[in-house]
């Protein structure tokens, strides 16, 4: 009796599977050539529109950067689609207008910002990933409440502290002041807290049995297991520090010994001829813009695999 029941169930399951396969095949065959063409055409159209929106501003920037002065600055209502001649001298003028100093200070502040942010964020997140210590919940609620504060409110407090300490009068302390907004972040600490908490308890227990506790566990076990989070926080911090504008505008004046790449972009391209009605040379300014984004392009293509791996593996602390 059991054998007959088993045969019947096998027959019904095979028949159901066969009917499902036939139904799926029929649906696939019913798709006409016109529908397939329209689907592909629509996708290509969307990609083309977005491609034009993204690529054309860069194309115009390159064309104007290489255009001669009379074409770039003398013809106000003309849309430049191709330069009359390729003027490499525009880039030389932009380079000699303070580019190297701005590049040096921006690279230095960005590098130090990443290191300092990673140090404070990892230690902050690891401290709150420890299960039990006094006033942990109250402290965590206090730090989370900082996230609702507007960025400008924090800037005002930091700026006031720098003015009271007179850090703006010293070159080294002024450079340190530029790093302050990126030195610590509750959001980055929150990311590290989740990453550390995702480490399985069995790994912690095994390391304790092997005598790896305290600071040894943090450096030798915990940090290597949250490498994706480290790369993600480092990348986001680098982009934020490199592209910062509001904070440097508050601190740096025209006679400041420290300048950053975004402040350089505001000043580059000013016409040295005071009597000329053209105050800003657009071709030189856009040449400076191209020079400003080249380092980030180089950094991206040099570390693109690391960047993509960090993004794709974010939230996973266990390898393999």
UniProtKB/TrEMBL annotation:
Transmembrane segments: 45-67, 102-128, 140-159, 171-196, 217-242, 286-303
Protein name, as recorded: Carbohydrate ABC transporter permease
SUPFAM superfamilies: MetI-like
Cell membrane found in the keyword field: yes
Compartmental location: Cell membrane
Statement: the UniProt record of this protein carries the keyword Lipoprotein: no
CDD domains: TM_PBP2 (cd06261)
